[in-house]
Q: What sequence folds into this?
């Protein structure tokens, strides 16, 4: 099959033929309908995260089940699925307690080693092992994933668009509804209005937030934020974002979401908080980045700093529910799609994301 391989930062990504083996016990093979291009893919391309290489890129996607491994009873051939980059093992302490986004098997085996649950890969090229990326590797014509990583959704949902639910939507909306549990009437600031940030905004709207302040340096993204529910907008290219938030809301905000993941934006999110506020780190920084805050202020103001991995979702429950919300008109997905490109144009799609000219590009095999 065709796939997009990353080897190192000195080489452009490679669109090439690779071999894919049959699914093993508990796994399924999925024909990819669409793969979203996300900033996490950029972190890999820039060499900002440790990863087992060479690897097939991509972790956001959707498709159709075409083959079942031994013992799989939860899915059938022909099922429409959204891929989850946290395929819960179902057996570790966190999975058993309902915190599947913290799956220990994914955190210690699947993600860092670039393999599936049994510690091996299903991908190769001319005898060379090719690693999986976050248990998905959606920049390909087909994938082999654990059955728990292929979440069945309704058949009438457009397969290409709902690929976004697998990362951007689940991460952004989940950070609001699950990680932070934003209450109706709350005040919210969102730093970064990209694919994830816009979903934080519409998550805050779903939660019934009273004021939602969108912050970005690109006017076109700020304009789009209003469609997703922002009540106020700040162009951080011309003003200090923290000062501007306190001008809108002198007492600070109840929740500040960093949807970018830089040292500066994380520190800004903490500085925007009011009494009892929570800063939620959603965007992922490069490995080793450090941010600072004043512990005394945090303690005296009864504030919190929360990390949000994958929106703290339960994939089998939350992904179908988010697709239902989209189909019912409660969530906007179509405006997030900047363009559709063939899989062979993955490098150009990554470049578009790098320059900030795209929200989400869908790669269509």
A:
């Amino acid at each position: 099959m065709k796939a997009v391989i990353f080897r190192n930062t000195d080489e452009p990504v490679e669109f090439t033929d690779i071999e894919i083996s049959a699914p093993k016990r508990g796994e399924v093979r999925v024909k990819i309908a669409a793969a979203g291009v996300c900033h996490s893919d950029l972190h890999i391309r820039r060499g900002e995260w440790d990863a087992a290489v060479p690897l097939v890129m991509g972790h956001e996607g959707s498709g159709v089940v075409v083959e079942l491994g031994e013992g799989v009873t939860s899915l059938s051939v022909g099922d429409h699925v959204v891929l989850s980059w946290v395929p819960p093992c179902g057996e570790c302490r966190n999975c058993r307690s309902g915190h599947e986004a913290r799956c220990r098997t994914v955190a210690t085996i699947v993600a860092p080693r670039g393999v599936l649950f049994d510690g091996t890969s299903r991908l190769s090229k001319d005898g060379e092992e090719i690693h999986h990326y976050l248990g998905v590797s959606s920049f390909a014509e087909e994938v082999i994933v654990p059955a728990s990583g292929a979440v069945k959704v309704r058949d009438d949902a457009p397969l290409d668009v709902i690929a976004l639910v697998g990362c951007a939507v689940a991460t952004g909306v989940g950070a609001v509804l699950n990680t932070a549990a934003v209450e109706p009437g709350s005040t919210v600031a969102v730093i970064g209005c990209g694919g994830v940030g816009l979903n934080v905004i519409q998550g805050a709207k779903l939660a019934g937030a009273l004021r939602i302040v969108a912050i970005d340096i690109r006017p076109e993204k700020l304009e789009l934020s209003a469609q997703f529910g922002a009540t106020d907008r700040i162009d951080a290219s011309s003003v200090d974002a923290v000062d501007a938030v306190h001008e809108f809301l002198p007492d600070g905000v109840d929740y500040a979401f960093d949807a970018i993941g830089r040292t500066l934006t994380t520190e800004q999110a903490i500085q925007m908080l009011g009494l009892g506020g929570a800063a939620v780190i959603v965007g992922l920084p490069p490995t080793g980045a450090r941010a600072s805050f004043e512990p005394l202020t945090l303690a005296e103001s009864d504030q919190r700093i929360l990390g949000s991995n994958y929106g703290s979702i339960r994939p089998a429950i939350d992904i179908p529910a988010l697709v239902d919300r989209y189909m019912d008109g409660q969530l906007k997905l179509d405006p997030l799609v900047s363009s559709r490109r063939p899989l062979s144009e993955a490098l150009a799609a990554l470049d578009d994301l790098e320059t900030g000219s795209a929200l989400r590009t869908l790669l269509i095999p």
Notes: The chain has a mean pLDDT of 96.
